[in-house]
Amino acid sequence: MTAVLLGELSWWMQTTFRSVGVLLAVLLPAGTLVYMFLFKMMSFMQSRLGPMEAGPYGSLQLLAEVGKFIQKEDIIPWRADKRLFAFAPYIVVASVFLVYLVVPFGPDAWFVDFNVGIFWVLAVSSVSVIGILVAGWSSANKYSLLGGLRAAGQLIAYELPMVLAVVGVVIQAGTLNMQGIVAAQADGEIFGWGGIGNPFILTQGIGFLIFLIAMQAELTQTPFDMPVAESELVSGYMTEYSGLRFLLFFIGEFASAGAFAAVAATLFLGGWSVPFLDNDANWMNVVGPLVLLTKMLFVSFLVFWVRFTYPRFREDQLQQLAWKILIPLSLVNILATMALKVAF
Fold this sequence. Notes:
By secondary structure, the protein is mainly α. It has one domain (about 1-344).
């Protein structure tokens, strides 16, 4: 229905609607994650209330933080490459927008329906490392450069197990299309029983675990926060940033968490679909985004729970986990999936 209505509009109207939609899809989950997990969940885990003054129960604290950063002076270091320094945060945020393009929110609620949607997600999500490297190098700061190099090494190492974890889902679903992966779970069966469909978390549990760990590392969240380690690198590649540009990095971090959570929910938890309901009905275009948001919050809860619980890895421990444990385990998962696919 949504696709039909958009098809009746002119090109610039379609572009406007899709741009506003992507903007909302990026900012609303990011703001929700900041308030629920950074302001509240972490506070309760540490036996404190968190922000309480700005709005009811501190609900407007996020707006206060945004206003504070916008008012701050935009400082560019004297020896920095000014153009690259200014452009780097926008590369990071742009990669998040590109991920959301192919995430389906309902039977007809999507921005772009690529046949190779998951391939697109894995490709554009890696663009953020370019922005991080550019920020580290252009800052003319040793701490920033070290943070950028650490981020590059970390993201390259954990991109591999993430891709391999997704391969198991693609083999089982038989498609690279994100909407097709949702349909495969909604319409699938478990040993001939289709009461709840076939959410891939049941058959790809190892892949889901590997994806979560790789996602944690891709987001540079504790215990994988070496690129921004405050005790070692001040703030890593963000050390020299202030004002709006620092805010963009902050938005990019939590928007990326929402984007990866949406992808994980789509790949392993059935996306916007709900068992026992008519997932082809038009009203699922309204209910579907709420269902997907709920599953995103569940995945994000796991990510931030680990972030606020475990200490930081050493660099050698981080690399060993990726190359000696996650990659071999993901290859075993692919082989098992292939064998079971042929057998059943």
